[in-house]
Design a protein that fits this description.
Layout lengths: L2 H13 L7 E4 L19 H7 L5 E5 L1 E3 L16 E3 L4 E6 L16 E4 L25 E3 L12 E8 L2 E2 L13 E3 L6 E8 L2 E4 L3 E4 L5 E8 L2 E5 L3 E4 L4 E8 L2 E2 L6 E4 L4 E8 L2 E2 L6 E4 L4 E8 L2 E2 L6 E4 L4 E8 L2 E2 L7
Parallel strand pairs: 1-2, 2-5, 3-6, 4-7, 5-8, 6-8, 7-10, 8-11, 9-12, 10-13, 11-14, 12-15, 13-16, 14-17, 15-18, 16-19, 17-20, 18-21, 19-22, 20-23, 22-25, 23-26, 24-27
Length: 338
C-alpha cells in the first residue's frame, strides 16, 4: 500500500468515533420485548443481559432476585453457573425500575439480590455441608477465566446483595473456594456498595481470592458467612486486595480466620471494622500466615477464638498496623487481641 494511503487509513481510524456506550436494562418483573432497550422491555434474566453486553456497556439492574442458572443455554440447577465479571462491563444494582439517571438509584431501598440458592430452599443452618445447600451454586459471582484471562478494574459490580453461594467441593478443586465471590488469575474487579451475606465454602465463605487476585473493594459488608476451613468472611491466598470501608460482622470459620484469613498475601485494608466474628481454632477476627498486609484505621471488636488470637492471630507474618483498636476480643489459651 502506498505511504499516502497508509497515512490516510491511520487518520481515518483515529478520527472514527468510539462505540457509543449502551445502557442495558434488567428487571426480573419485566414483561415486554426482553431486549434490554428500556425498563419496559428489560431483560428479565441477568445472564441474558450479560451475554448481550459488550465492553463499554452498563447494566442497570432493578430490585429483585437473580440466580445464575437462569438464562439461555444454561441448565436450571447447574451449580457451576455464576455471574461472570468481564473487563469493560459495569453492573449497577439498586434501581426501582423507572430511573433515567444512575445517580437516582438507591441500593438500600431497592435491594438487588444475586442468589446462589438455586432451588430457593436454604435452611437456617450456615454450613457448607448442610443438606439444604447441597444444590446451591458453587460461586455466585466470579472474575478471571483461563481462556479469556483476568478481569480488569473496568469490570464493575456496584449496589448488590450477594448471597447463597456454597463452594463445598472436596479435594483440590476450584469449587471449594469463594461461595459469594471467586476471584482468580490477577483479576482486579471494582466492587462497591455490596452486602455479602450467608455464603458458605471450605475456603472463603463470602469471598475467595487466589493467584494474585487484586480486587478493589469499597463500602463492602461481609455478614454471616461461614467456612469449614479458612476465612469465614474472606480468604486471600497469594493475592493483593485493596479494601476500604469494609465491615466483617458475625462471620465464622471452623478453622482459622473467622472474619478474614490472609495467607501469603499483601492486602491493603483501611477504615475497617471486624466485629463479632468467630474461629474454631485461631484468629477470631483476622488470621495471617506468611503475610505482609497493612491494616490502618480499624476496629477489632468482640471477636472470639478458642485457642489463639481472639482478635488477631499471626504466624510467620509481618503485618503493619496503624491506628487499630482491639477491644472485647477473647481466646482461651492466649492473645485476646493479637
Amino acid at each position: 500500500m502506498p505511504k499516502t494511503a497508509c497515512l490516510l487509513a491511520v487518520l481515518l481510524l483515529a478520527a472514527a468515533p468510539a462505540p457509543a456506550q449502551r445502557v442495558l436494562f434488567v428487571d426480573a418483573d419485566a414483561t415486554g420485548a426482553g431486549d434490554g432497550t428500556t425498563w419496559a422491555d428489560a431483560f428479565p434474566r441477568l445472564q441474558d443481559a450479560l451475554a448481550a453486553a459488550r465492553p463499554g456497556d452498563e447494566l442497570w439492574v432493578a430490585e429483585g432476585v437473580y440466580r445464575p442458572d437462569r438464562g439461555a443455554g444454561i441448565a436450571p440447577g447447574d451449580r457451576t453457573a455464576y455471574f461472570d465479571l468481564r473487563s469493560g462491563i459495569a453492573l449497577y444494582g439498586g434501581f426501582g425500575g423507572t430511573e433515567t439517571r444512575r445517580d437516582e438509584r438507591d441500593w438500600t431501598a431497592h435491594e438487588t439480590i444475586l442468589s446462589g440458592d438455586l432451588a430457593g430452599d436454604d435452611g437456617d443452618v450456615l454450613d457448607p455441608f448442610d443438606p439444604t445447600r447441597a444444590d446451591n451454586a458453587f460461586h455466585v459471582v466470579g472474575a478471571g477465566d483461563a481462556a479469556r484471562g483476568p478481569a480488569s478494574a473496568t469490570a464493575i459490580l456496584d449496589g448488590f446483595t450477594v448471597t447463597g453461594g456454597n463452594a463445598n467441593a472436596l479435594g483440590i478443586d476450584p469449587n471449594n473456594t469463594g461461595g459469594g465471590f471467586c476471584i482468580i488469575l490477577e483479576s482486579r474487579p471494582t466492587l462497591r456498595h455490596l452486602v455479602v451475606t450467608r455464603n458458605t465454602a471450605r475456603f472463603g465463605g463470602g469471598m475467595g481470592l487466589v493467584s494474585l487476585a487484586a480486587p478493589a473493594l469499597e463500602d463492602v459488608v461481609f455478614r454471616e458467612n461461614a467456612a469449614s476451613e479458612k476465612g469465614g468472611g474472606a480468604w486471600s491466598f497469594v493475592s493483593r486486595p485493596t479494601m476500604r470501608g469494609v465491615r466483617f460482622e458475625r462471620n465464622r470459620s471452623d478453622g482459622r480466620g473467622g472474619g478474614l484469613f490472609n495467607e501469603g498475601s499483601a492486602a491493603l485494608i483501611d477504615d475497617a471494622v471486624f466485629i463479632g466474628n468467630a474461629a474454631g481454632l485461631d484468629g477470631g477476627g483476622i488470621a495471617s500466615e506468611r503475610d505482609n498486609s497493612v491494616l490502618t484505621n480499624a476496629r477489632v471488636l468482640g471477636n472470639t477464638a478458642p485457642r489463639w488470637g481472639g482478635g488477631m492471630f499471626n504466624v510467620r507474618s509481618a503485618p503493619i498496623l496503624m491506628n487499630v483498636v482491639f477491644s472485647g476480643n477473647a481466646s482461651t489459651e492466649a492473645g485476646t487481641g493479637d
